Amino acid sequence: MAEQYDQRRVGDRRDGRRLRTISSTFQLTPFIMRRPSDAVNSFTDQIEVSAIEKYLRAQRQEGNEDISLLHIVIAAYVRTLAVRPALNRFVAGRYLYARDSIDIVLSSGRGGPADAGALAVTVRFLPTDTLQDVFRKINSTLDNIRADEESDQLERLSSTLIKTPRFLLRFGFSVLRWMDYHGWMKRDWTERSPFHGSAVISNEGDYALSSITRSINSMGALPVSISIGRLRNATELDKAGRLLEKKYVDYTVSFDSRIADSAYVGSAFKYFRYYLANPEELEKLPERVNDDTM
After folding, report:
1. 103 forms bridges with which residues in the sheet?
2. 48: how many CB neighbours lie within 10 A of its CB?
């Protein structure tokens, strides 16, 4: 991963290094498609969950009752970025960068009343993290925030900003966009921002919804969105013509096509589907970790 490159060069950002050896077509694309909304592509796929349910049952028998589908999905995506690192790129200031770390933004309910709002928290992972590492990091972060509302800095900041006059808010966010465009935002700002990261992942199935197609925000640098839908049943015929009951979970992926072409994205999500079909592989260290181009 890019975090291995300690030497910063002119043009690099605090949260990533500029890619200089990619094709000229990719280098020109952000000048043609200036906003993520110009370049967003999306697709919907499905997960046949029999292997995941079998794995979860085995984990619960061993006493790991809190592990869930969401943990497996996130671990599968972290492992996918380890072998297909171009999905961890982002566009800023019309240039393409490789992110220094794997930062997953989680959209999660607060619990309690329906109008309690949602949490948007960023969890940092290593490309070598196993499913157990992912489980521990996610639960530790969410437990800390839910137990201590004072630690929810985004909510406290929002409560303060909403009291600010509208013209000052517009000016302030214009300044933030300008700073982010030039890569001048402080590292601790981008690390806490829900608009900066490798991907945003949400489980809409928790709210009994199907997967949704999310837009890619023009503010910040979030190149990929993954939305997981609710469990659904399906009746299918096997090769012998017998009816089988199967369970599926749909997921929708939106991605900024300026970071990689569809062929690369397709090959990346082949790995993603493989890990979801074989969750026990996520207990092992990856066989290899690929670095993005310079």
Report:
1. 124
2. 16
How many Å apart are CA 220 and CA 176, to the nearest integer?
A: 9
Using one digit for the tens of pLDDT, what is the confidence trace for 68-91? 999 999 999 999 999 999 999 999
The token pair that represents 8 in the structure block: 């910063």
In the predicted structure, residue 234 carries a pLDDT above the cut 70: yes
User: Which run of H or of E encompasses 176?
Assistant: helix 166-182
Closest among 108, 113, 112 to 123, alpha carbons compared: 108
What are 53's strand-pairing partners? none
Rounded Cα distance between 142 and 115, Å, is 19
The token pair at 283 is: 């207990």
Question: Would you call 14 helix, strand, or coil by DSSP?
Answer: coil
**What dihedral do alpha carbons 104, 110, 116, 120 form, nearest 10°?**
-10
Q: How far apart, in Å, are the Cα atoms of 268 and each of 22, 88, 96?
A: 18, 11, 19
